[in-house]
Structure formats: C-alpha cells, structure tokens
Amino acid sequence: MSVHPNLIGAERSLAASGDTFVSTMPATGAEVGTFPRSAKVDVDRAVASAKAAFDGWRLTPAPERGAILFRFADILRAHKDELTLLMTQEMGKVAAEAGGDVQEAIDMSLYMAGEGRRLSGQTTPSELRDKFMMSVRMPIGVVGAITPWNFPIAIPSWKLAPALICGNTVVLKPAEDTPLLAQRFVELLHEAGLPDGVVNIVHGFGEEAGDALVRHPDVPVLSFTGSRETGIAVTKAAADNLKHVHLELGGKNAIIVMDDADIDLAVDGIVWSAFGTAGQRCTAASRVIVHRAVYDELQKRLVARVEKLRLGLPWDPDTDIGPLINAAALAKVHSYTEIGLGEGAKLLTGGEPGSSDGFYYRPTVFADVEAGMRIAREEIFGPTTTLIPVGSFEEAIAAANSVEYGLSSSIFTRDVNKAFRAMRDLQAGITYINAGTTGAEVHLPFGGVKGTGNGHREAGQAALDVFTEWKSIYVDYSGKLQRAQIDNQ
Ligand code: UN1
C-alpha cells in the first residue's frame, strides 16, 4: 500500500527508518491509510524547514497572511462533505458532529484571517515631551503543535490559524489515530497558497516524534491538547529550554440541575453533552449534580432518553452514537464501569460494550454517586455520566468545584440570582447557563483552570497571546537625552 508522506518544506518524504503505521476505522477496522512512523531525525528536518521559512513568513504583511487563511476557509467549505465523511470513517464521530468539527475550522480560519488586519497593540502617552510609545505583537518562531484525535480538523485549526496569522511557522504532529484528516488539512492549507515550509507535518507516535518535537531547541512554543499526565510531561521536558507551553488538558465537567430547572431542557443538555461524540470531548458532561427535589424525575426522564439512543455506523444518518476511538479506549471506559460498581454506585443503564464489532460502548448512567468517588473525579473520556444528588445550591457548587479539573461547567435554573452566583463561583474556564457543557464558539477564549491547563487559552483574542511576544517600543524625538522617572520629577 502506498504511504501518505510527511510534508516537510517542498518535500514529501517517508520516515528515514522506513517504518510505518496504519490508520484504521474504529467502526469497522478497515484500513484508512499508511503513514510514516517518524523519529527524531525526521522531526529535525521538519524543524529545520520551519525555521528556514520563518523570516519569509514573518515579513509577509499580516493582511497577506490573512488572505491565505480566507482562501483556506473557502477551500475547507468546498471540501466540507469530503472531510465530514472521512471524519466519520477515520475518527468515528457521527456525521452531524463531524460536519460541526469542520465548520469550527472554517469559523476559526475566518476569525483569524480577519485578525490579519488588526493584531492590535497599544499606544499610550509618554510621561516625557516629544516621546512616543507603543506595543506590538511579535511572532516567536517555530511552533510545535501536537493535536488530539477527538476534534481532528477543528483543533489543528485552533492552533495553526492563530500561529500563522501572527507570523510563526509550524511543525504539526497529529494524533496517530487520525493522521489522514491532519494530512488533508495541511494539503488544503498548501492549496490555499501557503509557502513551502511554513507548515510541516510529521506523522508518528508521541513517545517518538512528539517527544523529539517537544525537546527540540529550535521550537520555542509548544501547543498541546491531550491528557493531564502528558501535559505535565511536556511541561517538564520543555523546562530546560524555558519554552512557552500552551496546554489544553482534561475535564470532569459538571451540569448542575436545580429544583427550579426546566427538566426536559436539562435532559436535552445532558444527553447532548454527555453522549455526543460518545463522550470523547474534554468538555463532556461526565457529572450531573442534581437537586434532590428533582432527582427521581430527572433520572426517569434521562434514562428513557438514553435508552433510545441508537448505536451504529457513524456515517449512517440514523446513528446517534458512534464507536470509541480504539481498543484501549474501550477497555478504559469499561474499567470505569467496574470501578463505579465497586464503589457502590447504582448502574441505571449501559455499562457494557455495544456490539461485537467496532469499539462501541453503550451510553452509561450511574446514579447515587458521591462527589469523592473515582468515577466522579477522574476523566473517563467515554459515554459515561454520573448523577450526584445534593440538597442545596451551595452544596451543588461545592461538589462541582471538588475535582482537580476546571474546563467547562453548566447550571440549569430559572433563578437569575443563582445563575449569576454560578457564573461567579464555578471554578471553570467556561460556564453555560441553561445549556450543556459543550458548544464553545471560536471567538471567545477556550480553556480551563486548575488541572485543565496552565493559564493559557485557545480561540478568541486570547489565542494571540500564546503565539506572540509583546514588544514595547519607545521613540524619543526630542533630540536630547530624557530620563524616565527622573527628568520629569
Ligand atoms: C474538545 O473537546 O477538545 O465546545 C474541544 C465544544 C467544542 C470543542 C471541544 N466546540 O465542545
């Protein structure tokens, strides 16, 4: 079978070792393609290519860089159906969600393309006469982007579109579960007119290609989305070179349902947030904190809805839930069912694999869960949610905040006072009122507090801070030496 090559500068090349790996469809096991299993030597070449392209790209006017991203958005739109189908195949999310994933990349490309005519800094008056002051954003250099499989087109766009508009060049190491989608993403960027070497793609595994990228001395910025454990390892590996590290890690996101909530709306939000993408989102609602006054009613309506969800082939329009990404994910999700049962939680529905073919797992709901149980604290990354009964608003907020993660959060209530208290008190980077925990839009910051990250954000204006350094510039046109803090006193 022919191998999809690494794209390094103008070259299409295999791993120097000749090693390869195969991408398969989680629904059927059918092969999608073969890719180079790259190692340090291949990453070194890709970084050299990105480094060589940096000066040309940073000196290209930002509106011109933006014009390429506008064209890229058009090209993505023209290829939306192709990418959507490929995503159902290679990643396994259902068609409506796959289309949304591609749309998110279109939106992000348009948003960042427009930034080409802004990238605003500040001007501010000087304390001295005949002196001008301003701050400007400067690109940093080669960005190492390491992307996950769960949003295989959207997340590369979250990293690459802002990195590029700011004038950086990129080496992308995409997840080994979805390499063809990343390959198509980069091919389409080239079709939009991106110069050779500005974006390079190196396929392979985290411990090999990913590790080499993280440690490379010529890669001053790393942007990583993945597990908390890997995020910590990336941070440690990057520390010796004082690299900038942007992390977007796990979540254990809670929906709070108060006694005055619209219960049917809450059930809609829970079903969409807990079981969409088979729960494989960092924003998935894996906890539902429910006021005791509506606990029985909510359980009843939720289970009735969940049991109607149809597992099936992700490209089939009738399917609600596709497969998990791979065998290891299936084993992990099932192990948490056993952990939950062992902890004394009550299994209301699901709790077993969905079929003998593909990595399907039945949507699973545990009730009578206590906030301290492992199933209520650890990220499962599958279609499992946990119902935690509470007696008051205060107890609900305390339970929501009791985990080490802080990505997304939500409350269903008709009480505006409670809604505003929740907006203030929930420890999370994102809070939804009367909606589930997923559904972020590209023009607000995306990311989390506590164990979800290290203070940076993707998307919106905040993303520009990851990919630029501020430079403050002072222009003295007085013709004499003027000393700040001294000569004006
Ligand atoms: C992720 O799970 O890594 O808000 C990203 C959402 C999506 C993005 C999720 N727009 O759920």
CATH superfamily of the largest domain: Aldehyde Dehydrogenase, Chain A, domain 1
What is the typical, i.e. mean, pLDDT? 97
Coarse structural class: alpha/beta
| CATH fold-level assignment of the largest domain | Aldehyde Dehydrogenase, Chain A, domain 1
What is the percent of helical residues?
A: 25-40%
Strand content: 15-25%
Cα(first) to Cα(last) distance is: 76 Å
Given the C-alpha coordinates, what overall shape results? globular
Largest sheet: number of strands, sense, barrel closure? 7 strands, mixed
CATH architecture of the largest domain: 3-Layer(aba) Sandwich
Count every beta strand, where a strand is a DSSP E run of 2 or more residues: 21
CATH class of the largest domain: Alpha Beta
In quaternary terms, these chains amount to single chain
Evaluate the radius of gyration. Answer: 24 Å
The structural domain count equals 2
Bound molecules: 2-aminohexanedioic acid
Sheet with most strands: strand arrangement: 14-15-16-13-12-18-19
Number of helices: 14
Task: Point out poorly predicted stretches.
Answer: none
